């Protein structure tokens, strides 16, 4: 079996569903079920307990060592993290606790387990750490996209905590020989995306008749990748990536936030037009910018393409269409995750705006 951490979150749950659809091999899913973790994402796996073994727990807990032994884990895929930049600005401590200290403790549990394996299993073992392009910092408008050798220069508490975890993973390979792989991916979107992030927040607000909040001038650039393409890249790196290497993952789909929201509104106008026939674009509102807001991210994915033959299946337009269709068909899921705690966050984050969403 493999161990997936954070497998009840956005990308982790997509990975778990895709893995079990495509592999005979089962997995252990370790997730603390923070506000971002949701077992409803995995509801379709009900009854598959032999292949999907869910454990509620913290990656930093010492009991992880026993979990590795009990299930004779052959690989770990580490998604577990605090993941939202705006939350890291309001309350950074949880990001240090999980992303830095938690990853360190997980590495310690894995190192002890790996050390005791026989030579063959030791050589075959993998620890794949899922990270972000945000560790590289911000690009100027005409700078080349991030390669794996780009200097690490994180700007938010979130990206700094992820960069720290990447460094720890690297150090465990160089110092102890732990067979690690690291992936740094661009912004994801797709099913089960928690509606605190730009795309699902705007789908939710658009349908609820609320403002679509655009930070600053809306000309910040993000390089969007459909979540299923991220999952296929991780499977490819796990299967064939060279130990100790870093692989950037991205779909070469750079968009300004304004372009992203325009395309989103146009897609909604087509698939679920407003009753009054007016475009959802009229709900866009410019709000105060995020402090320290990174201007541009862009991934150069030449290495994973050349070495591992990975290419994404979706463009931004095809992926966004699927995403909007998924949200329209899963309004019950959205209602469940936008309950009390969610409202508290939205109140906090958008409270000082002229027209809170
Ligand atoms: P998410 O916030 O949706 O999910 C995180 C999951 O981790 C949740 O299920 C949560 O319950 C769990 N978790 C949090 N702390 C934990 C702990 N201490 N122990 C065990 N489980 C814990 O995040 P996501 O968007 O799915 O991101 C997953 C990973 O991918 C993160 O490491 C993130 O940095 C990375 N990543 C995300 C993106 C993106 O666009 N979302 C892009 C690149 C990389
Ligand atoms: P987000 O989805 O939070 O991802 P990240 O900050 O990790 O890139 O934000 C994507 C972009 O959208 C980013 O430039 C911030 C911007 N944004 C808004 O303009 N309004 C919002 O309400 C949110 C949540 C984000």
Count of DSSP H/I helices:
13
CATH fold name of one domain:
Rossmann fold
The helix-strand sequence is EHEEHEHHHEHEEHEEEHEEHEHHHH
The end-to-end span amounts to 44 Å
Helix content: 40-55%
- Describe the strand arrangement of the main beta sheet, using strand numbers: 3-2-1-4-5-6-11
CATH architecture term of one domain: 3-Layer(aba) Sandwich
What's the main sheet like?
7 strands, parallel
Shape: globular
Name the hetero compounds present: nicotinamide-adenine-dinucleotide, thymidine-5'-diphosphate
Mean pLDDT: 96
The number of distinct β-strands equals 13
Low-pLDDT stretches are: none
Q: Approximately what portion of the residues adopt beta-strand conformation?
A: 5-15%
CATH homologous superfamily classification of one domain: NAD(P)-binding Rossmann-like Domain
Rg for CA atoms: 20 Å
Main attributes?
single chain, alpha/beta, Rossmann fold, seven-stranded parallel sheet, 13 helices, 43% helix, binds nicotinamide-adenine-dinucleotide, binds thymidine-5'-diphosphate
Question: What report would you give on this structure?
Answer:
- With 357 residues, the protein is α/β, with parallel strands linked by helices.
- It is 43% helix and 15% strand.
- It has helices at residues 10-22, 64-70, 85-90, 93-115, 119-124, 157-176, 198-207, 227-240, 257-271, 302-308, 316-329, 331-337, 340-349; strands at residues 2-5, 27-31, 52-56, 75-78, 126-132, 180-185, 188-189, 212-215, 221-223, 225-226, 246-249, 254-256, 284-287.
- The chain has a seven-stranded parallel β-sheet, with helices on both faces. A two-stranded parallel sheet has the order 7-10.
- Strand 1 (2-5), helix 1 and strand 2 form a beta-alpha-beta unit.
- It is globular, with a radius of gyration of 20 Å.
- It starts with a strand and ends in an 8-residue tail after the last helix.
- It binds nicotinamide-adenine-dinucleotide (NAD) and thymidine-5'-diphosphate.
- Thymidine-5'-diphosphate (TYD) binds at residues 85, 187, 197-198, 201, 213-215, 220, 222, 257, 290.
